[in-house]
Amino acid sequence: MTDRMQMIIECAEEEAAKTDKQTVSILHLLIAFLKQDASFLAELSYWSSISIEELRCVDKNVQTFDYRQMSSSYFSIPVEKDVTIVFASAIGYMQKFNQIYLNEGHLLKALLRTDQVDKLLTDDDKFMMISLGATARDMITHLGNYSFPNIPSSFGIRRVYHTDRNKLVSFVYDHFSREWSLTIERAFVEGKDTIYVATDSQRNYVGFAAFDIFQNKKNYFGPMGVKLDLRGNGIGFGLLHHCLRDMKEIGYEYAILGGAGPIEFYEKACKAVIIPIF
User: Fold this and answer.
1) Residue 66 reports pLDDT greater than 60
2) What's the confidence (pLDDT) of residue 5?
3) Strands 137-142 vs 254-260: parallel, antiparallel or unpaired
């Protein structure tokens, strides 16, 4: 679970503790999202047509149709049955996208598909929240005064050779997507040398990253991917910084991180910030 997910859970518990039932509900989760004032989640409350106080009033008067206290490993206090259903759905989204951390985007997407939320938010609200909080976002990080960390040599990170082409294209296709594999293949055809790979002790690929290859966009980092079973070991962090170092040496003052899915990873890894879309 990401740190921001933990903050949302704790906030929902605080809201629930103020009520007679002292049981976390769907409404408390929604309020917790709207109370966040950091990063892109701060935009949710600003653009929403319903306020936190309005939701609290609804919470006081609502009669839950299927109220049932249950325990959850995510919470320190009881939750309603619908909350467990939402978390199961969120885990499904996490697995669908081959991710290993449950994040706020997974939870928000699951939350916005519940009947209770349908009665509280307009279609415009839900579209806005999905766009802001449950969709990959472009980010930016400044390179001018960036201090680069030391990357362990054990990750086997190197720039690609021309002979990597077929094997790397197949690796990206098998472990990530056809679209990314076509992007990598096109970069080889155009003779670009802005791709890095990470390899294991048998010199098998375990990850890759690139810059300036997606639709020929300059200052643009991505795509990047690490094998599912090896994520969380610092490989992506290393690949990212090899590319960012090259981008700085080229003379780029900043880097655009295109369609960043694990937003919190990039915030922590290279102090990237969200580019507003509204």
Assistant:
1) no
2) 94
3) antiparallel
